[in-house]
Amino acid sequence: MSQRDHEHEWVWSGDHDCRCACGADMWAIQTVLGAAADDARELAGDSFYAGCRVRQESENVELWLFNAPASVLQELEASRPDVYVIHNDAPRPLTTLDGLRDSFDWARWKSEGVKATAVGPTEDGYLHVGVEDDVDVAQEKLDAAYGCDVVRVSQQGPFFALPARSVAPDGGQHLT
Question: Can you tell me the distance from the alpha carbon of 6 to that of 13, in angstroms, rounded to the nearest whole number?
Fold first, then answer.
């Protein structure tokens, strides 16, 4: 991949063909960036990796880490120069968020008036909880239980898309 002086604007031009006016192919970029995202998770390791977002329009991977040492940051930069945009300020790693997600007590929260529709990690180190109704009340109750700055609540009815790697009330995992 080469550095671009613009962000790609994708245009569908036929069967499964999505290109930018500059000639860039979305699927080719996705393949390269997907591999870079996988490599970043492996290189950072469970202790530091919080999540990432593939940015096809700018041909990079935005990566969130939890207090990774300089050696990890240098290894990531050396492995794929100019591909990673690194934020080393995530409040917790993905492994912690996975544990919080897996232990979320759906019945308890429903009995306390928090009608959760989805629970899952955000790529920047928070636990996302989608709720059907009063976001402010749910945020207050979840902050009291988990502590401030752990959970981010948003309104999300039962028919909205679930965040990546979230768990639905029926216990099934949903990938988006």
Answer: 20
Could you give the angle at which helices 26-44 and 70-79 cross, rounded to 10 degrees? Answer: 150
Coil, strand, or helix at residue 117?
strand
CA within 13 Å, CB half, 173: 8
Sheet with strand 166-167: strands edge to edge: 151-155, 127-131, 116-121, 166-167, 173-174
Give yes or no for a contact between 29 and 20, defined as CB atoms under 8 angstroms apart.
no
What's the pTM?
A: 0.76
Q: Does the domain formed by 94-174 have CATH 2.102.10?
A: no
SS3 95: helix
Domain segments of the chain as ranges? 11-87, 94-174
Which H or E run includes 77?
A: helix 70-79
Per-residue pLDDT reduced to its tens digit, 59-75: 889 999 999 999 999 99
Is the CB of residue 56 less than 8 Å from the CB of residue 8? yes
CB 119 within 8 A of CB 167: yes
Instruction: Quick: pLDDT tens for 135-149.
Output: 999 999 999 999 999
